[in-house]
Amino acid sequence: MTNAAGPGAKAGYRPVKTDSLWETTLDNLAGQKIVVLGAGIVGVCVALELQARGGQVTLVDRAEPGSETSFGNAGVISRSSLVPLNNPTLWSKLPRLLTNRTCALRYSLPFILRNPGWAISFLANARREAFNKTATALDALIRLSAPLHLDLLAAAKETGRLNDTGWFFLYRRDADFQKSALALNIYQQFGVQAEILDAPTLQQHEPGLKPIFARAVWVKDCYSVNAPGAVVRAYADLFAARGGEIRKADIREVAKDGDSWRVVTDSSTLSADKVVVALGPWSRKLLESSGMRVPMGYERGYHMHYSGAASGPHPSLTRPVFDVSGGYVLSPMAEGLRLTTGVELTEIDAAPNHAQLNMAEAAAYQAIELGERLDPQPWLGHRPTMPDSRPVIGEAPNRRGLFLAFGHQHIGFSTAPGTARILADLMERKATEIPAAPFAPERFIR
Ligand SMILES: Cc1cc2nc3c(=O)[nH]c(=O)nc-3n(C[C@H](O)[C@H](O)[C@H](O)COP(=O)(O)OP(=O)(O)OC[C@H]3O[C@@H](n4cnc5c(N)ncnc54)[C@H](O)[C@@H]3O)c2cc1C
After folding, report:
1. Are 395 and 436 in contact (CB under 8 A)?
2. What is the tens place of the pLDDT at every residue in 5-34?
3. I want to staple 336 with a disulfide (CB 3.0 to 4.6 A). Which of 305, 355, 364, 424 is the partner?
4. Atom of ligand 1 lying closest to residue 63 CA
């Protein structure tokens, strides 16, 4: 990866200053054997970055690259994502969310009771001071990542999948729009380019939407891709074309082995100087089996594709939209219109419950000619979320040589390239381009 706000990068993604530590003993990665666990967007970006620094990198996954959480997301890469779900407005929304009947949030009470520490800490992090820290950290990570994504898309010859017309937050009622005041203030404070649209202007931009929206916010510092899974596969192909090894295997254990590390899979045992755990929502299970406690929640989400309008004067949609009042996101994808749902907070392996998707679908039919369902079954993914909504990036405490890169909640597709950049700097014991402390594993992991 090159280090530049590459050609075509939006002005809002300006370089960010670091205040990180500078260690004097550098650890050059050239020639080191490094095993990266997990070939989602995070693992693949980490593998590419370590390879670019001369590491001898093996990427291990039990499935094809980009076929899990990184496959089914909404494909949005936006500076507006600096506002996590646990922000100060959560408190006023809580009574409604706790009814367990909204499109935005479903939860399993047994899951909450089994993970009380996670739930309490998640709520506590919605307080203003904690939220400010998170928004600042995420803003830096998003700004670092987007230009790197552009470089990678160019190198992988995938720029044709990129849309740079931003995305719309849609409000059916003025009262819903008023509740976005905090987000709008934060955008202003952080210099995120956004414009408020009235109903007629929205119709001009997206004539395929039915005239049910009173207002919209157009976030302009935003890109999107029309097939996130295909992008991850192309990045993985790039890694392989540059000499990287991709191994298909089920990872069972990671353990210290003298000065090096041992990765045990169902088919072989790999030895490495350094290991990176980038197993997304499954990172918790592997690390807990090695004696670490990882307070991670699973914000599950569903998607379904639709054919859109069969005929008529208007294209369905030209950019992703978030119907805030309806509680779903709709993105124009290569496969059709992709409807993605809000959060289902439950165990990673709980049986699917399509009630939330059905509710989102009904709301989306009110907003657009959705057409027919295109997939035989809804897709289900698991957003891996730490209590403060910041990913874990860095070396595992007291386990020299074991590095962690997971917990990217709703924004892992956007922030993987920046994660890779920070992690590689930390592995080389170098100064990082943005502050790494907000992402330190020590926040939660002992
Ligand atoms: C509905 C929905 C919408 C979203 N929308 C957006 C969006 O618009 N923009 C955005 O930036 N983000 C979005 N996200 C979040 C984003 O998709 C995730 O943060 C990101 O994909 C996480 O990537 P990852 O590489 O950490 O995990 P994953 O993509 O899940 O990768 C983990 C990999 O580990 C492998 N693995 C697990 N266990 C093992 C094992 N034992 N052995 C071998 N391999 C194993 C899996 O096969 C998988 O390939 C969305 C998520 C959802 C669910």
Report:
1. no
2. 444 567 666 555 554 444 458 899 999 999
3. 305
4. 47
In angstroms, what is the span from residue 382 Cα to ligand 1's centroid? 7
**pLDDT reported for residue 7:** 43
Instruction: Output the domain CATH number for residue 386.
Output: 3.50.50.60
Task: Give the per-residue pLDDT at 311.
Answer: 64
Residue 303 Cβ contacting ligand 1 at under 6 Å: yes
Show the 3-state SS of 170-208: EECCHHHHHCCHHHHHHHHHHCCCEEEEEHHHHHHHCCC
For residue 256, tell me if it sits in a domain: yes
416 within some domain? yes
Closest ligand 1 atom, residue 65 Cα: 49
Ligand 1 neighbour 43 (Cβ under 6 A): yes
Q: CB under 8 Å to 299, separation ≥6 — which residues?
A: 85, 343, 344, 345, 382, 383, 385, 409, 410
pLDDT-flagged residues of the chain (< 70): 1-9, 11-24, 311-315
Q: Whose CA is nearest to atom 35 of ligand 1?
A: 38
Residue 199 confidence (pLDDT): 98
Instruction: Output the residue whose Cα is nearest ligand 1's atom 21.
Output: 70
State if residue 71 touches ligand 1 by the CB under 6 angstroms criterion: no
Angle, in degrees to the nearest 10, between helices 128-155 and 41-52: 60
Q: Hey, which of 413, 415, 423, 439 would you mutate to test ligand 1's pocket, going by the most ligand atoms within 8 Å of its Cβ?
A: 413
Q: Residue 161: inside a domain, yes or no?
A: yes
The predicted structure's pLDDT at residue 312: 59
What whole-number distance in Å separates Cα of residue 71 and Cα of residue 379? Answer: 10
Domain boundaries, position 124: 33-443
Is 188 within a domain?
Answer: yes
β 343-345/105-107 pair status: parallel
